[in-house]
Request: fold
Amino acid sequence: AGDASLSGDIMTMRLRPVEDGDAVMLYRWHTDPETRRFTPYPEPDEWDNHLAWFIKRIPLGRFYVGEHDPEGAVGVVRVDHRDHRDWISITIDPRSRGRGCATGLLEAVVREVETLPLWAMIHEGNLASVKVFKRAGFVYHLDSTPPWHVYQRDR
Reply:
């Protein structure tokens, strides 16, 4: 996996493929109230539903844990192919928010997947994510329906 070597307040991030043992950690991150607030499905999944999704999702690839020394895992990112587009999704450990992890993770996965364009759907109220994606070169796409805004990176 690739390393992100970025300057400024962006954390250098290592990517590794998600493993079976990450299910509980990801469930904890995905059920965080602040995370749920900005997802299309605000009610958290029950553990059994999450585990079933997780087991099906791992073999599809392009599903990574971002790690930063000395903290270890600080977030997860995946790229899903649907509707003829590659959609990127990031979740940051609540304890790691506001420290440059999302930007480092996003830059690392852009280098890793080398697939362009990449697309992101961001809730209009999630100003932190809008800032992160813009900083990483994503631009607002006119094909957006509030409260969801679509962003694209094509170079």
